[in-house]
Task: inverse folding
């Protein structure tokens, strides 16, 4: 599925597949298997689940530096806010960390 990155998070989200069957995405650092966080599919983080699920489908189940750049573009205005307010958008901060370090993440998608 191809997505045309727009100017707003809402616009971008509208292009992505629904993920109602995903309960959560569990992330680990590729290099050492260390826990990198979990994104629950619930109000407030459902958009993040849709973006991460899309990235994982496009990048072979990994969040690489290239995937992280795409993710930041899809988060649109929220990425700018994350830069201004570190810690306020944990799921974007995680992508910014991948960009800064090049340390890829692998994921387990739990359905339910």
Result:
């Amino acid at each position: 599925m191809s997505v045309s990155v727009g100017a707003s998070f809402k616009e971008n989200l509208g292009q992505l597949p629904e993920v109602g069957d995903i309960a959560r995405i569990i992330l680990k650092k590729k290099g050492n298997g260390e826990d990198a966080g979990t994104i629950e599919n619930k109000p407030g983080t459902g958009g993040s689940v849709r973006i991460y699920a899309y990235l994982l489908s496009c990048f072979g189940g990994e969040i690489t530096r290239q995937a992280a750049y795409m993710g930041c573009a899809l988060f649109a205005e929220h990425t700018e806010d994350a830069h201004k307010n570190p810690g306020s958008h944990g799921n974007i901060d995680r992508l910014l960390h991948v960009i800064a370090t090049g340390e890829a993440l692998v994921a387990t998608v739990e359905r339910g």
